[in-house]
Write a structure and sequence with these properties.
Low-confidence stretches: none
Number of domains: 2
CATH topology of the largest domain: Cytochrome Bc1 Complex, Chain A, domain 1
Strand order of the largest sheet: 3-4-2-5-1-6
CATH architecture of the largest domain: 2-Layer Sandwich
Shape: globular
Mean pLDDT: 93
Distance between the termini: 30 Å
Largest sheet: 6 strands, mixed
Radius of gyration: 22 Å
CATH class of the largest domain: Alpha Beta
Helix content: 40-55%
Length: about 270
């Protein structure tokens, strides 16, 4: 359905001429037939449905050595006008000096590392913040994770914090262009998402242009903690009582009943 020539991009980089590249493409992919059906388009979840469909889920794994905490929600697509506001906002949250790691690991010693990712794709994407911790601190880390996401939307982001986080983004981008493979990867992404190839030249300026107010507005509209689902996997007896104080609607799914192929995540009687 999706692995087809009209949904693929082939990029060459290095000491190769256009003629050589086209000849190689013809040799190895020239007989790849295009399907008669149109390429299906993925649906994008709306903000309203995010709030309505929010879930607080515990996967109970008795005897698990640690608890894994993940806060997740739908994100933005790569062509979104909010893209640069999004990646800068995420940079404030993630990384060693990001807010999540600073609050959960550095200040409290509750995890070896906490961070987040804004995974932008062609028609949608994912935002997720995660950490692993002791079972008994699972509820505390869950609250801290959602709390830091919420603070980004409600509190201030001083320039003294924003400037180094933007510098981190720009530095990673520059390092990614230092090799042939890195350049090909960047060009491939732009081609795949239908973006102009000269966007490479505008990346630094677009990041630098983001202001504290841009981060705050993006977090409020796109990272709303009230529309973010929470999943905690671990030995539930160690953290569930405290988690229920924060989220009375929590769903508990025993590991034996877990079905990752079901939207409800729980086995039905016919699958047991």
């Amino acid at each position: 359905m999706f692995y087809r020539p009209d949904n693929a991009v082939l990029v060459f980089g290095g000491d190769i001429s256009p003629t050589e590249g086209f000849n190689l493409a013809q040799k190895y992919f020239g007989d790849w037939p295009k399907p008669a059906t149109e390429l299906p388009r993925a649906s994008i979840t709306t903000a309203g449905s995010e709030v309505a469909n929010r879930r607080i889920v515990v996967i109970d794994m008795p005897g698990a050595g640690q608890a894994a905490v993940i806060a997740a929600r739908s994100g933005i697509h790569r062509g979104s006008p909010d893209y640069f506001r999004g990646i800068v906002s995420n940079a404030v949250l993630t990384g060693y000096s990001g807010r999540l790691n600073w609050e959960i690991r550095v200040k409290r010693g509750l995890s070896y590392g906490a961070g987040s990712v804004l995974d932008t794709r062609r028609w949608g994407g994912l935002f997720a913040a995660s950490a692993q911790t002791k079972n008994k601190s699972g509820a505390e880390v869950a609250a801290l994770t959602l709390g830091e996401i919420n603070k980004l939307a409600t509190g201030d982001v001083p320039d003294s914090e924003l400037t180094p986080r933007k510098a981190s983004l720009i530095g990673s981008f520059a390092r990614g262009l230092e090799t042939t493979a890195g350049l090909v990867s960047q060009v491939s992404a732009l081609a795949l998402y239908g973006l102009p190839l000269d966007d490479l030249n505008r990346f630094v300026g677009n990041v630098q242009a983001i202001k504290p107010a841009d981060v705050k507005s993006f977090a409020a509209s796109r990272l709303n903690a009230d529309a973010t689902s929470l999943i905690v996997v671990g030995d539930a007896k160690e953290f569930l009582p405290d988690l229920k104080k924060q989220f009375p609607q929590v769903e508990v799914i025993p590991l034996a009943e877990l079905d990752l192929n079901s939207a409800g995540l729980r086995r039905t009687a016919s699958k047991s």
